[in-house]
Structures are given as structure tokens and as C-alpha cells.
Amino acid sequence: MKAIATAERRIDDSSQQWKELVYWHRRCAALPNFACNCVCTECIFLEIKFGCGRCGIIVREGYRCEEHSVITEDGYILRLQRIPNDGRSSRSGQKLPVLLQHGLLQSASDWVLNSRNHSLGFILADAGFDVWLSNVRGNVYSRRHVSFHPKSQEFWAFTIDQMANYDLPAIINFVLNETSAPSLHYAGHSQGTTIGFILFSERPTWSAAKVKTFHAFAPVVYLGNTKSALRHPMIEMVGGYEFMPSTRFMKWLGGKLCTGKTAFLCQNALFLFVGCDFLNFNMTRLPVYMAHTPSGTSVSNIMHFSQMIQKGEFKKFDYGSHENKKLYNQPESPTYNVGNMLVPVVLYWGGNDVFTVESDIMRLSKELKSTLSIHYYHDSDHVDFVWGTNMADGAYRRMLELELIIICLNLLAKYSKIRQLACAIILFIIYRLGSVLSIVVLSKQNGVKIWLRGLVYLLHVVVVFCFYSLSIIFVLVCSCHKGAVTQMEHFILKTDINRSSIVIFIAHYFVD
């Protein structure tokens, strides 16, 4: 509230609009369950005028935040935000890094724009993971280069090809070096999945050694059947090299148009590109989203997506036959083969998504050979996977449960028979996650012995008869540990993920 008062004093007395915004912020702060569901109290609207970037939102939600810079092989300076592991996951210091990669025209901020119970970045942090939020070249947080000025043509000569070949490997290596972890878990949304599919298919062995799982939210690979407004080839009309940058004017415009009676204009414009979902879209937070989106990219990058739409294929950027021969030694740009991927991938997609539609998702799933599971949300659109109110108990919960399986399988391969049995029971408790196929793939990847895999299968067979009794017994056994009950209650209250909270807590206890 002190920051609100400070900001209010800075607002000109003649500005009735800003006074009204502060008034609503006071209501949000006074009523935690109020419909607006505030995040970063002094920053939601006031950021448009005073700024609250990078770590501001994270710190004001009560989390620690670190900022890091990564220099790519071709000289781009990328900014990363980190919500550090505060010790919940392991008393022995073991870290579980998770890298979150934003989508097209977005930034790392989009993972933390909702309340702490609905933002994936905060949910993972509460679950004890070491959360890293990355920004690719050209967005609002990564507009620096060792040689090129951001106003130069050379700076903006990039597409998703360069993001995948330079940005993502540099970020992954940096995270692993900082955490001393052997591998990490990767989650991408929209463009974040695109660069993941490119890197993991072009460098399959390297990726499989460094990336444990790949969670693809609204995956963008094939766009031949897209219904988004982006399917119309209008990019040729755009001048310059930078596309939709994040500027003070854009933030002001978003705050001006996306509130009150004109808010529907912003909403409908957004729905033209990503799909319509009134049910899971929190209109009161629209100015928050628009203050951070768009975050900018290059015109060349948008042209690359336009080529993917027009050709219906997953290819490298087409420079024209003459330049293609110089770069690729062939007149046509090469095709990416996602079938080469070795990293286990989980697909999440929505029925209201007009950008990446069912036919294109099914084509992708057929070509992938390392798919663990596919999760469909019939009432979700493209941006619901970062902004939607239904994801905490949907896609995010599935992601947490799958990560729990991986933790348990690691224990099955390393620890005593008692702990192996305990983790097998955890797998049994969360059997609803998906098919036995997921367990098989992950078991083989983690080198679990045949008899242990057989035990998991057996537990699946008797699930109907033993579910409640085993879960109760297991929780009671865990509660014998001094302070475990209190810790569990605190953990569940803080994360609000219900069943997932309990089993994740148990898993973290056994990792120690």
C-alpha cells in the first residue's frame, strides 16, 4: 500500500483516469477474492506510466528474483529472470531447474502475469522447482548486442531459426552451469515450442542429454490449416525491421483502450489471432496483458511464420532460390524433421485455438516418436496456456504430475528398495495422468530395472481396489517424520493444487 500511495502522489491531480485506477487497486488490495484477482498491486496499471519490468512483478509477489545475462555465439545479449529454488525440493541441495520459454510477441513476464495460484512460474516455484524465465532476441528484455545497435538492420536479421540455433542452446547451457544440474525440464508456449522442436530435432543427441522433458503448450509447428488472421499475407505492408515493439506509447494505448467501455475492442482484436474464449479469459486483467504484449520481434521472424502458413510445412526461412543455394546448397529451404527428436514431449492444445488447429496438431503427433501424452482442452484458445484461469487445475497440474513421475523414476533407479516401493506407490496414486506408455518411455530413459517396471504395471492393475487405502497409509507413514504434517499443510495452502500438492510434497521428501 505504501507503493500505491507513492505512485498516487506522482499522478497529476487533473488525471481522473489514473485516480480511478488507483481506486480500483485499493479495492483489489482490500478484497483478495475480488474479481480482478490482482497481481503486483502497484504495477498492474501504474506500470504503464511508471514502469515495473523484469523482476518487479516477481518480487512484489513475495518471491526472490535474480537477473542474468547470456551472450549467444552470434553476439546477442539475452536477459533471464530466475525464481530460485529456496530449498523445498531437497535438503541435500539438489536442484530441479525448469526453463519457461515465452511465445511470439511475448516475454518472460507472461508466465507471471496472473495471480500466484494461476501463473505457471509461481506454481512451479511453490512446488520447489528452480524456475528460469528466458527472453529470446528482439523482445523488450533482449534488445542488446555486442556489436549491433537495436536500430540497425543487422540487429533484426533473425528468425526462429537463429533463436533455436543460438538463443536456446546458450540459455540451456547457462542454466545447467548455474545450477550444476545434469539436465533441465523445458516448457514452451507457441513460438517457445517452435524453437524447441527445431533445436531438439536438429541436435537430438545433445538435446536428449540436457533436456529431461519438453512440455509444449499450444505447439506451433504446422500452420497450413490455421484460421488466425495471420494467415492473410499482410506482412509485406510493414516497413522497417522491427515488428510491434514494446514502447511507452503502446503501453499507454493498451491502458487507454483496454479498460472501460472500449475494452471489448482489445479483446476482439486479440481473439482474431488466437481464438475466442470468454469463459477462461479474465477481462479485468486485460490491461495487464496489454501492458506487456506485444513485446516485439523482427519483421523477418513474422515473415517466417507467414511462410509456414502459406506453404503448410515446417521449414527453414526461405530467402529465395538464389540465396537458398548459397546458404542451404539447394533452391528450396530445408524441412525440419521432428521425427528425429529424442526428448520426451507432452502436447497441450485447445479446441478454441485458431492459430494451431486440430488437423495440424494431429499431423505433428503422428510424426513425433517421443510423445508421452497429449492433453486436449476443448474450451481453451492459444493464449489460455499462459493467461487462462483454467490452466492451474488443467495443463499446469498435468505438467506437475508428470514431473513427479520423473522424480520417482530417478529414485527407482538409485535408492533403496523401501524408497523404490514408496515411489512406485506415488506412481500408483497419480495413475490418472495417462497411459502406461508414459511410464514405459520414462522408465527406459531412466534405466529402471525390469522388475520395477513390472511393479508399476501391477499397481495399475489393482488401482480400483487399493487407491484410497494405499494413499492414506502412505501419507500417515510420511507424517511420522518430524514436522512433515505442518510442512505439508503449509505447502498445500500455498500452492492450492489439491492432490498434486500432496504427492509433490511426498516426492520432494523422498528426494532428500
UniProtKB/TrEMBL annotation:
SUPFAM superfamilies cross-referenced by the UniProt entry: alpha/beta-Hydrolases
GO BP terms: lipid catabolic process
Domain Partial AB-hydrolase lipase: 57-114
InterPro entries listed in its UniProt record: AB_hydrolase_fold (IPR029058), AB_hydrolase_lipase (IPR006693)
Residues annotated as transmembrane: 421-443, 455-478
Keyword Zinc: no
Superkingdom of the organism of origin: Eukaryota
Pfam families found in the cross-reference section: Abhydro_lipase
Single GO MF descriptor: hydrolase activity
Keywords, sorted A to Z: Glycoprotein, Hydrolase, Lipid degradation, Lipid metabolism, Membrane, Signal, Transmembrane, Transmembrane helix
Keyword Acetylation in record: no
Family: Belongs to the AB hydrolase superfamily. Lipase family.
Protein name: Gastric triacylglycerol lipase
Organism: Trichinella pseudospiralis (Parasitic roundworm)
